[in-house]
């Protein structure tokens, strides 16, 4: 008898406390129906209060960008709140500039909807949709990068080259709850029925592991987008693009878009950094693009060329190659130079510095940082 | 049997002579990391005081009416910890609902406190010293106030230290620990006034 009292009593105490928490949650977290006013009366929605602004909006079909899925670690879900929702939380301030703090820009994932609230968001977020896509094909482009092509069925997507889409990864194995991760679209915008992304396997990554090991052709997957500010300017300035690995995605999309929209004579330099020939891909596509776009120059470089791989192109770190080309090959006397960077924060910082040192002003450097 | 000590004496003793932080060195992690500015120190101090008072009282009742009658005192660590965790969780939700202003100044520190060892420490001392209910209340509240006083004092000292020529090797936690040591010496000086166990 004594044997059972202990576990029963402890379990009982824990059970009662858990029940209490549930009750308090139901009573204290119940804010009833509240109204969200978007862009000063442009749209109004009545929702149940109590959840974060980000979650509440997405349950109503309005998707703010979010690379981390609401953990407050990417700072992407910024939006302006016009009503009073209290001061900025310590979890928000690291992502805000002084001007943003003044304008009451908030992280939607950290703001809880408790009362009627007014927000302002960019108009083009109304175009953001949730697609139920079908995986058409999965191809290995290198040993650790897969090219995934999604069919959108009856839906169509309108996006500018450079934008990204969020993949909704369902729960799998030990990962509970769905996860969202952002990937730049590599497909051509003219193809409105399909979306293509490049996914590099990150050891331990939730989304990349799923795509590499679990995703099958013919499977359905939810996509949310398009999002993003990364796009090329419409001018005749010289584009200096730098990216390695799956950072190729937005540039592939941009280059094909230039082909499709007749922007054939723009001068574009694309510096592609890889460690060995094993990391190189799309070499044939780039060659074809170089033929069709007369002022497009593709510059692949290896940082660790192996003996016997027959590599004749430039070698060294991509920052050094970029530096050499900027000093010796690229003539920018008449035209403005623009930098387009896609990659890890470290790579972007290093390339940014090389560009600044060679006369590319900071205003003309655009980047797409991997979160 | 509860010791024959006036709760007011226990209250005074737990603030000054037996300060949970400076004589027992419990609750050090948040003490060191959050003591950089007065505002956060105040918020955290208030949160610790509220949580200590409430959880120590609940834990006393748990012990008196469940653990002792059922002869389950060996499980007191588990029970105390889950009571503390659940109470903090509920407090956070209630404060968020009732007073957004209070939530801003106090609520965000609550999750930090669940794992503050001073909270569990006070519950265990309360049990070891056999306090009755009012003594327990005074002890919990007083220990909270003492912790608050200590972190506030440390935050104030840190403001001065920030402008002092500290040797490079001692910057950061090093000088903070030395500062706490001196503070502890000063507080132990009170113990001649009255010594309550």
Mind explaining what this structure looks like?
The complex is a heterodimer of chains A (371) and B (197). The mean pLDDT of chain A is 89. Chain A folds into 3 domains: 33-125, Ubiquitin-like (UB roll); 128-227, Elongation Factor Tu (Ef-tu), domain 3 (Beta Barrel), CATH 2.40.30.10; 238-369, Nucleotide-binding domain of ferredoxin-NADP reductase (FNR) module (Rossmann fold). The longest helix of chain A has 27 residues, at 2-28. In chain A, strands 9-8-11-6-7-10 form a 6-stranded antiparallel β-sheet. Chain A is globular. Chain A contains 8 helices and 16 strands. The termini of chain A are far apart. By secondary structure, chain A is α/β, with parallel strands linked by helices. In chain A, helix 7 (318-328) packs parallel to helix 8. In chain A, strand 13 (268-274), helix 6 and strand 14 form a beta-alpha-beta unit. Chain B has 197 residues and is mainly α. Chain B has one domain (7-192). Helices cover 69% and strands 0% of the residues of chain B. Chain B is built from 9 helices and no strands. Classes of the chains: A alpha/beta (371), B mainly alpha (197). Chain A binds chain B through residues 5-6, 9-10, 13-14, 17-18, 20-21, 24-25, 28-29, 86-87, 89-90, 112, 114, and chain B through 62, 66, 70, 72, 75, 78-79, 82-83, 86, 89-90, 93-94, 96-98, 100-101, 103-104, 108.
Query: What is the chain-wise order of helices and strands of chain A?
Result: HEEHEHEEEEEEEHEEHEHEHEHE
CATH class of the largest domain in chain A: Alpha Beta
Structural class determined from secondary elements of chain B: mainly alpha
Q: For the largest interface in this structure, which chains are involved and how many residues does each contribute?
A: A-B, 20 and 22 residues
Number of helices of chain A: 8
- Number of helical regions of chain B: 9
Stretches with pLDDT under 50, minimum 5 residues of chain A: none
Radius of gyration of chain A using CA atoms only: 24 Å
Main beta-sheet strand count, sense and barrel state of chain B: none
Query: What is the H/E string of chain B?
Result: HHHHHHHHH
**Which whole number gives the mean pLDDT of chain A?**
89
CATH fold-level assignment of the largest domain in chain A: Rossmann fold
CATH architecture of the largest domain in chain A: 3-Layer(aba) Sandwich
Classified in CATH, the superfamily of the largest domain in chain A is Nucleotide-binding domain of ferredoxin-NADP reductase (FNR) module
Helix-strand makeup class of chain A: alpha/beta
Task: Tell me the quaternary state.
Answer: heterodimer
Overall geometric form of chain A: globular
Helix content of chain B: 55-70%
Q: What is Rg of chain B? A: 17 Å
The CA-CA distance between the termini of chain A, in Å, is 56 Å
Calculate the terminal CA-CA distance of chain B, rounded to whole Å.
Answer: 14 Å
């Amino acid at each position: 008898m004594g044997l059972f009292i202990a576990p029963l009593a402890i379990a009982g105490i824990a059970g009662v406390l858990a029940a209490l928490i549930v009750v308090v949650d139901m009573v204290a977290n119940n804010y009833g129906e509240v109204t969200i006013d978007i862009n000063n009366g442009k749209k109004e929605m009545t929702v149940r209060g109590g959840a974060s602004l980000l979650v509440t909006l997405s349950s109503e079909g309005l998707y703010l960008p979010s690379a981390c899925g609401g953990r407050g670690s990417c700072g992407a879900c910024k939006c302006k709140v016009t009503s009073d929702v209290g001061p900025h939380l310590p979890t928000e301030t690291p992502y805000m500039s002084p001007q943003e703090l003044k304008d009451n820009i908030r992280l939607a994932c950290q703001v809880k909807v408790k009362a009627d609230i007014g927000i302002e968001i960019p108009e083009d977020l109304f175009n953001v949709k949730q697609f139920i896509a079908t995986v058409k094909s999965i191809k290995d482009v290198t040993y650790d990068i897969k090219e995934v092509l999604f069919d959108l069925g009856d839906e169509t997507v309108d996006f500018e080259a450079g934008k990204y889409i969020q993949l909704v990864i369902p729960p799998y194995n030990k990962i509970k709850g769905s996860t969202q991760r952002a990937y730049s679209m590599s497909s051509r915008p003219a193809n409105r029925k399909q979306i293509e992304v490049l996914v590099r396997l990150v050891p331990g990554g939730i989304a990349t592991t799923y795509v590499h090991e679990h995703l099958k052709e013919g499977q359905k997957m939810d996509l949310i987008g398009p999002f993003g500010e990364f796009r090329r300017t419409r001018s005749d300035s010289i584009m200096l693009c730098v990216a390695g690995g799956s950072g190729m995605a937005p540039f592939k999309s941009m280059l094909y878009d230039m082909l499709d929209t007749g922007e054939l004579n723009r001068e574009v330099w694309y510096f592609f950094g890889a460690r060995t020939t094993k990391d190189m891909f799309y070499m044939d596509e780039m060659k074809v693009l170089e033929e069709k776009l007369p002022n497009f120059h593709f510059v692949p470089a290896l940082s660790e060329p192996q003996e016997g791989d027959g590599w004749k192109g430039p070698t060294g770190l991509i920052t050094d190659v970029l530096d050499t080309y900027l000093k010796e090959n690229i003539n920018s006397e008449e035209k403005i130079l623009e930098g387009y960077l896609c990659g890890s924060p470290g790579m972007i910082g290093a390339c940014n510095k090389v560009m600044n040192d060679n006369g590319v002003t900071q205003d003309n450097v655009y980047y797409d940082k991997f979160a | 049997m509860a010791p024959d000590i006036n709760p007011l004496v226990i209250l005074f003793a737990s603030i000054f002579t037996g300060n949970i932080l400076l004589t027992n060195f419990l609750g050090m992690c948040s003490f060191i990391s959050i003591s950089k500015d007065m505002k956060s120190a105040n918020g955290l101090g208030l949160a610790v005081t509220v949580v200590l008072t409430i959880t120590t009282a609940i834990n006393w009742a748990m012990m008196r009416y469940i653990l002792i009658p059922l002869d389950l005192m060996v499980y007191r660590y588990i029970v105390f910890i889950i009571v503390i965790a659940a109470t903090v969780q509920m407090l956070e939700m209630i404060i968020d609902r009732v007073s957004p202003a209070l939530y801003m100044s106090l609520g965000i520190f609550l999750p930090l406190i669940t794992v503050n060892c001073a909270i569990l420490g006070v519950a265990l001392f309360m049990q070891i010293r056999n306090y009755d209910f009012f003594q327990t209340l005074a002890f919990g509240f007083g220990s909270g106030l003492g912790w608050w006083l200590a972190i506030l004092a440390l935050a104030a000292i840190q403001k001065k230290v920030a402008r002092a020529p500290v040797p490079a090797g001692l910057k950061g936690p090093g000088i903070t620990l030395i500062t706490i040591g001196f503070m502890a010496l000063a507080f132990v000086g009170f113990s001649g006034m009255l010594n309550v166990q």
